[in-house]
């Protein structure tokens, strides 16, 4: 993928994350990606794109893991002197760091929302 206006970014394999929108087609992922069997009859609510919230969360965590793995591989290459460019390692490490920070922030907000819902009075 080539990013217009930024030379060399496409050459190192950088793929920007594009957030799914309501009308987009669902992302197809491995049925056993979460370590379980493929689910055939899910009762979870699905969005307009046909992908359930749980599937979107699992997909996001898989992307985070892939980003972390890529940064780890490049860090080993940089440490052993096999890295073609130190810039690619620095970009991958920064991308992994930012991705982790966003994931933790989203988790914290979800936990705060759950806690607030549990504090609501009944009746």
Short description:
The protein has 123 residues and is an all-alpha fold.
Verbal overview:
The chain has 123 residues and is mainly alpha-helical. Helices cover 50% and strands 0% of the residues. Helix 1 packs antiparallel against helix 2. The longest helix has 34 residues. About 12% of the residues have low confidence.
What are the SSEs and their pairings?
Layout: H1 53-80, H2 86-119
Helix pairs in contact: 1-2
Q: Notable features of this structure?
A:
123 residues, mainly alpha, 2 helices, 50% helix, elongated
Number of helices: 2
How far apart the termini lie comes to 55 Å
Category by helix and strand content: mainly alpha
User: What is the total tally of β strands?
Assistant: 0
Report Rg.
Answer: 19 Å
Helix/strand order, N-terminal first: HH
Tell me the strand percentage band.
Answer: under 5%
Quaternary organisation: single chain
Main beta-sheet annotation: none
Shape type? elongated
Overall pLDDT score: 75
Poorly predicted runs of 5 or more residues: 28-42
- State the helicity in percent bands: 40-55%
């Amino acid at each position: 993928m080539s990013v217009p206006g930024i030379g060399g970014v496409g050459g190192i394999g950088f793929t920007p994350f594009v957030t799914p929108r309501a009308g987009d087609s669902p992302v197809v992922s491995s049925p056993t990606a979460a370590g379980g069997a493929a689910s055939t009859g899910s009762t979870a609510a699905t969005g307009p794109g046909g992908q359930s919230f749980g599937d979107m969360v699992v997909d996001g965590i898989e992307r985070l893991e892939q980003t972390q793995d890529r940064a780890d591989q490049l860090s080993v290459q940089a440490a052993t002197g096999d890295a073609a460019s130190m810039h690619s390692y620095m970009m991958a490490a920064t991308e992994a760091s930012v991705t982790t920070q966003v994931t933790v922030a989203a988790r914290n907000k979800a936990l705060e929302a759950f806690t607030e819902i549990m504090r609501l009075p009944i009746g």
